[in-house]
Amino acid sequence: MKKIIWWIIGIVIVVVIVIFATRGGAGDTGPIKIGFIGPLTGDGASFGEPLRNSIDMAVS
Q: What is the pTM of this model?
C-alpha cells in the first residue's frame, strides 16, 4: 500500500513540473536563436568548417 502512495505522489509531482515548465514560453515572441556545435579547430576542423559554411548559407 505504501508503494502505491509513493507512486501516486511521484506521478503528481512530475505532472505539476511538466505543466509549469511548458507554460513559461507561451508569450515569448523574440527572435529564434540557432546554435551550432561542431569541430572548428584541431584535427576535426576539416569537417567542421564546411558544415559551418553550409549552416551560414542556409540561415542567410
A: 0.44
